[in-house]
From TrEMBL:
Domain ABC transporter: 4-232
GO molecular function, one term: ATP hydrolysis activity
Stored CDD domains: ABC_TM1139_LivF_branched
Family: Belongs to the ABC transporter superfamily.
GO process annotations (BP): L-amino acid transport
Keyword set, alphabetical order: Amino-acid transport, ATP-binding, Nucleotide-binding, Transport
Protein name: ABC transporter related
Domain of life: Bacteria
Amino acid sequence: MSLLSLKSVRTDIGQYAVLHDVSFEVPEGGVFVLLGRNGAGKTTTLRSIMGLWTPSPGSITFRGQDITAMHTADIARLGIAYVPENMGIFGTLTVDENLVLATATGRIDPDRLKWVHGLFPALETFRDKQAWSLSGGQKQMLSVARAIIEPRDLILIDEPTKGLAPSIVDAMAEAFREIAETSTILLVEQNFGFAKKLGRDMAVIDDGRVVHAGSMAEFAADRALQDRLLSLSM
Ligand SMILES: Nc1ncnc2c1ncn2[C@@H]1O[C@H](COP(=O)(O)OP(=O)(O)OP(=O)(O)O)[C@@H](O)[C@H]1O
């Protein structure tokens, strides 16, 4: 059984159908990458999984349980975390306070914090700084750290490398690799170099439809397919 399964998902935003027919299966473990041109429907797919939009018709199941019409908080309680493109951090709170607020109980497990600090050392160095004063890369690290400060089965991450320097992107890739040893990551990415290094399985969305799904190794080796499905936007 797949960890997450989308079947013929249609999501309307207002009067517009944004997702027409999205189906894919995310296996447990590793990084699954969702690719697609600008405006293809990647963010809408993540928001639909998280219950921020409600698809109809179509179904989304997590560990076999139908979550299509569930509330976001209940979906989160099942073990799914979401790192949105705008990062969702609180600028006037410190790094530590941002992490505490991301826990269910208001208490951070010290061993877990140590692990997160190992992944993102800047979050330990600047733990008492207000989040607004961090660099772009550090803010992104904080947004990912909030998602993993408690164990999660599935982490949805929307374009984490956007606007980041190559050295930060490399550090992020290292961290994602380690996170994906114990959780599954569903990654939306425009940076194909980054996606290619991390992804095991992948799907391409175009105009609200899945137009390709398969292994990343095969897709990365097929330049003609990349050009056709992603064109120059990658
Ligand atoms: N709140 C909204 N209201 C109206 N239209 C929306 C809304 N959110 C998204 N859309 C439209 O739905 C389509 C898909 O948007 P979405 O953000 O899912 O694409 P994306 O693949 O994540 O693109 P990008 O890489 O640009 O973020 C776009 O045409 C977008 O303009």
